[in-house]
Amino acid sequence: MNLFLAVILASLIGVYLLHLTARRLNAAALSPDLPPEFADMTDAKKYARSQEYARANMRFQNVSETVSLLLVLGFILLGGFNALDLAVRSLGMGPLATGLAFCGALALFSSITDLPLDIYHTFVLEKRFGFNTTTAATFVADRIKGLVLGAVLGGVLLTAILWFLRVAGQQAWLWCWGFAVAFSLLLTYIGPQWLLPIFNRFTPLESGELRTAIEQYAHGQNFALSGIFVMDGSKRSTKANAFFTGFGRTRRIALFDTLMKRHDTDEIVGVLAHEVGHAKLGHIKKRLLASILQTGLLFYFMSLFLDNHALFDAFGMQHVSHHAGLVFLALLYTPVSLCLSLAANAMSRKHEFQADAFAAQTTGDPHALARALKRLSVDSLSNLTPHPLTVWLGHGHPPVLQRIRRLESMGAADSPD
Fold first, then answer.
1. What dihedral do alpha carbons 49, 51, 55, 60 form, nearest 10°?
2. Banded pLDDT at 415 (limits 50, 70, 90)
């Protein structure tokens, strides 16, 4: 068997089995006993409901990843890539247009095959547990907008990469890296004002106790904001969230309307203080630097194998091309991507603890953030006892129980004797 094909197949199947094993261990780790830290927030009946939700999601993930793996393996082994390449070449377009058509067809095929599972997850699984508020019209509109936006933005990025690969010679990977980084930074800058409103409505937070508390906290931390907005998250789900977008002058806070309905002012300020902590402690810059370096590694890896004929032989290709090579290298990159994601998740979990400590210290109220985390977990039926392998593989946040215990220990330490 072709060495490249063996590595790719082993990687795809190995990663699939690893995640399958993690979910089996995760299911076994579900404890029927309600953690005492949550006794003031929920009861045994709702806690059992959260475990039922966890099991349902794990079963869904098993099916979803199995279908995805079988489709990819089938497409590889049955010569799907070569057939698609020959089909787009028969249209008689230039190299760049042919590359865009090839990658666009793959993206469209992936979207179509994912659609039944997306529909089931949204309108059956999430509805069954009381989370879904998405209408059929919103669901369809989201998919259309996503396809159009992906085609435009992805088309610009892919066109530039394919062009650099044609004209820049051995230094092409450096040009691709630089353009990809600049493009990503541009999206981060324009996203809050131009891209996010395509999917959601953002309205300025009205004057009142909450806005005053947020502005006072931000001012006290010398943390500049361009605005505080409420996002209509309830049009898709009852789950709550809050996030920062942009950087510099475009940095703004977005609060889900569902968050404001379920949390008091101190809890919301605690959540936002945690996010401010990420910025003040340099986490955002570190993550950005790590992302830039990972992108550079990806393109350097690309430069090593892109013109390797054995790689194309692994997929039964009649023609060597940059557009197909990019797809094949993405598959070959699977084990490297897994290792990098493990490191990124480990760094992220460390940062989450640090941001929690920052919020506790600067607000002077560790219990407020702890209450917010409890309420968010209860309302979203979160798994409170994930298996360590599951955390290690895919969690950018530490288990919520660990975070709450640390916060409450800080509060106990600050309490007068």
1. 60
2. low
- Could you list the residues known to form a binding site for Zn(2+), using ranges: 274, 278, 352
pLDDT tens-place string over residues 170-204 = 999 999 999 999 999 999 888 888 999 999 999 99
- Give helix 283-305 / helix 265-280 axis angle, nearest 10°: 50
Q: What are phi and psi of 9, to 5 degrees?
A: -65, -45
Containing 220, the helix (H) or strand (E) segment is: helix 209-220
In sequence order, the β-bridge partners of residue 202 are 231
> Worst-scoring range by mean pLDDT, 73-87, 210-224, 242-256, 305-319?
242-256
Average pLDDT, the chain: 95
What is the percent of the chain with per-residue pLDDT over 70, rounded to a whole number? 98
CATH number of 202-262: 3.30.2010.10
Interatomic CA distance for residues 225 and 214, integer angstroms: 10
Helix, strand or coil, per DSSP, at residue 200 = coil
Give the DSSP H/E element, type plus range, for residue 169.
Answer: none
Exposed/middle/buried for 297, CB within 10 Å: 0-12, 13-18, 19+? middle
Q: Residue 189: its pLDDT value, please?
A: 86
Contacts of range 356-359, beta carbons closer than 8 Å, 24 or more positions apart: 356/274, 356/277, 356/403, 356/406, 356/407, 357/277, 357/406, 357/410, 358/273, 358/274, 358/276, 358/277, 358/280, 358/281, 359/270, 359/271, 359/273, 359/274, 359/276, 359/277
Does the global pTM surpass 0.90?
A: yes
Active-site annotation, residues: 275, 356
Give the whole-angstrom CA distance, residue 311 versus residue 333: 12
Residue numbers belonging to the annotated binding site: 274, 278, 352
CA dist 288 and 6 (Å) reads 34
The residue extents of the domains of the chain are 3-132+280-414, 202-262
> How far does the chain reach from its first CA to its final CA, in angstroms?
71
Question: Could you give the residue ranges of the DSSP H alpha helices within 168-208?
Answer: 172-190
At 267-292, the pLDDT tens digits run 999 999 999 999 999 999 999 999 99
Rounded CA-CA distance 178/160 in Å is: 11
